[in-house]
């Protein structure tokens, strides 16, 4: 009995440690400097610095060289994930040389990037011109959404034949007609 408890506790400890692992490499994090996106605009010495930033994707654009992720920056937790609550610190553009699917890296998803500040891109945001710090991405991590694909994609209706009844969402739901509409 004692051996079983010891193995269980060891397993829980290992899972807890791997669950808190930062997705950005230790090497890149050790080079990163604590610079916030709003400070890059006013600090000319920020160019060329390595940073690890994260936040919520607000737009994705394909370019001839790769993909631009427009991100609303959020403070990162100890595991490198953008905080779900708190203050938005600013916006930045993550410039990725390569292929990322805009549907996967779409609006509303959380992302953490590590890379080098390469400049400032002034682009329209409503009626003003907003200065976005640009980060050339060396590493990128897309955080899974809590609800999975159900949260990312809209609900769709599907038809279920009358003989396909049973438990649905923990309730017994007998069919009443030839075809019934059920939401998945």
Give an overview of the whole structure.
The protein folds into 2 domains: 131 residues, Nucleic acid-binding proteins (OB fold (Dihydrolipoamide Acetyltransferase, E2P)), CATH 2.40.50; 30 residues, no CATH class. 18% of the residues lie in helices and 41% in strands. The strands form 3 sheets. The chain has a 5-stranded mixed β-barrel. The protein is globular, with a radius of gyration of 22 Å. The C terminus is likely disordered.
Comma- or semicolon-separated keywords:
9 strands, 5-stranded mixed beta barrel, OB fold (Dihydrolipoamide Acetyltransferase, E2P), 18% helix, 2 domains, alpha+beta, 4 helices, single chain, 184 residues, two-stranded antiparallel ribbon, globular
What's this model, at a glance?
The chain is an alpha+beta fold and 184 residues long. It contains 4 helices and 9 strands.
């Amino acid at each position: 009995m004692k051996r079983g408890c010891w193995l269980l506790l060891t397993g829980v400890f290992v899972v807890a440690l791997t669950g808190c692992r930062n997705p950005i490499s230790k090497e890149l994090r050790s080079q990163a400097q604590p610079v916030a996106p709003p400070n890059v605009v006013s600090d000319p010495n920020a160019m060329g610095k390595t940073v690890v930033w994260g936040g919520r994707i607000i737009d994705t654009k394909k370019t001839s060289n790769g993909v631009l992720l427009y991100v609303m920056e959020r403070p990162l937790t100890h595991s490198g994930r953008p905080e779900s609550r708190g203050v938005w610190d600013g916006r930045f553009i993550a410039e990725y040389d390569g292929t990322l699917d805009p549907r996967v890296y779409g609006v509303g998803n959380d992302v953490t990037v590590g890379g080098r500040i390469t400049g400032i891109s002034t682009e329209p945001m409503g009626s003003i011109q907003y200065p976005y710090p640009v980060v050339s991405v060396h590493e990128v991590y897309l955080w899974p959404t809590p609800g999975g694909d159900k949260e990312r994609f809209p609900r769709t209706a599907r038809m279920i034949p009358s003989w396909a009844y049973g438990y649905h969402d923990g309730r017994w739901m007998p069919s009443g007609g030839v075809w019934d509409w059920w939401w998945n």
